[in-house]
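Quick question: what would this complex look like in 3D?
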Amino acid sequence: MPAQRLRVIGGGLAGCEAAWQAARLGIDVDLYEMRPHRRGPAHLSDRLAELVCSNSMRGAALENAVGLLKEELARLGSLIVTAARESAVPAGGALAVDRERFAELVESRIAGNPRIAVHREEVLDLDDPRPTVVACGPLPGDAMLEAIDRIVSQVRVEGDAPRRLHYFDAASPILAADSIDETVMYRKSRYEKGDGDDYINIPLDRDQYAQLLHDLRTLPRHEAKAFEGDTRFFEGCLPVEEMADRGDDVLRFGPLKPVGLRHPVTGVTPHAVVQLRKENRDGSALNLVGFQTRLTWPAQREAFGRLPGLEHAEWLRLGVMHRNTFIDSPRLLDERLRLRGDRPLWFAGQITGAEGYVEAAACGAMVGIHAARELLGRSPLAVPPECALGAVVAHLQNTVSHDFQPANVTWSMVPPLPKTIREKKLRRAALAERALAALTLFIERVEAP
Ligand SMILES: Cc1cc2nc3c(=O)[nH]c(=O)nc-3n(C[C@H](O)[C@H](O)[C@H](O)COP(=O)(O)OP(=O)(O)OC[C@H]3O[C@@H](n4cnc5c(N)ncnc54)[C@H](O)[C@@H]3O)c2cc1C
């Protein structure tokens, strides 16, 4: 008897990757995407796998947990990471992509896969008993939110009642490259990484930095709308004004850190540095790195237009603020990201609280494999905890914290090595080596007939 078809709700990073991996293992997939009929507040196009904000998939090196995660995904034949590498634009030590080219590659590969049928249709409930992956992202419509609420509230959870949480994310502004005055800036990547000039740096002296702090603290901000509830930010993606509020030096030790950015001509390290990074392949659009914000649009023009060289900047997109929703995964999902209980229902992507593009794709890859194995009647396989993939799962299984919050993948989520290797870089290289060895065995088991 042929295996059942798998239904995937959401054609974002997680959903596309889940569909791809399940199809690779021989499962026929129905992939549902509600755009163009209905579009959430963060999406701008009708493309599958749209990157809703930055074009960066963060660090590329293996000593970086997210760099390792990308390498592991690539070895699993990941649709998302392969397309990202093929559409890469220069970004120092990071993997950043031309977002149009990236989405084009993902979409054409999904369309060309005979096992995946794409349905441009909004799924309104979860009553259908078919095996289903929920990869609806952090901003699904009300009907889907209610459906998720209904289904998770039926799960028996020890201790606290299951609950749906939310917080706010903020997107940073993008400006036209030909509208800046580069004569007051200099090109350099921190610590000379990448091609060395992937970033355009705006040096700030003490007074200019103080002016920026003043503006961020005093100019008007968007108030949260009633439907957005209380304001809870993800610590790894704080609005720039929130960082300014937290202390005079928080920005100087954060996104405006001048370390490794000594001026190439004067040799002086500025008091603080604002960085611009290419947003597309030809560099015609630049991202104001780390300036995710909830300042009002006029306030953003005023504050950021006072930065040296940005006096006449043409803003292609200003920062915006979004609600972001996720479930209480540690209490609701098992280690295969399957809802506890009898329903063949998996969750993948940001809705689980796995924060970040690569983490969303990682959830999708794992869920695609787990669901396919179940539908093929194969024994369950645990993802090795030593891997970065295992680290993503570890966070989603962390019941220690009562207040589950989204998180990016970090080294703190993998089992530590014996303390013999003292030097951080060497220790991380050893962690990566251990992870890739474990992954090789995992892949052999996944691909065994
Ligand atoms: C505003 C914002 C900015 C972010 N910026 C970054 C960033 O810069 N870097 C980073 O690494 N991460 C960022 N994130 C976090 C996260 O990585 C992204 O949200 C990522 O897109 C999550 O992938 P996903 O596949 O889970 O969801 P999505 O990419 O949102 O995909 C979900 C898809 O499901 C579709 N869908 C939803 N409901 C239904 C339904 N009922 N029926 C059919 N289709 C449906 C949606 O249209 C969408 O295409 C950001 C998140 C937000 C909200």
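Answer marked as accepted. Residues 169 and 322 are 5 Å apart (CA to CA).
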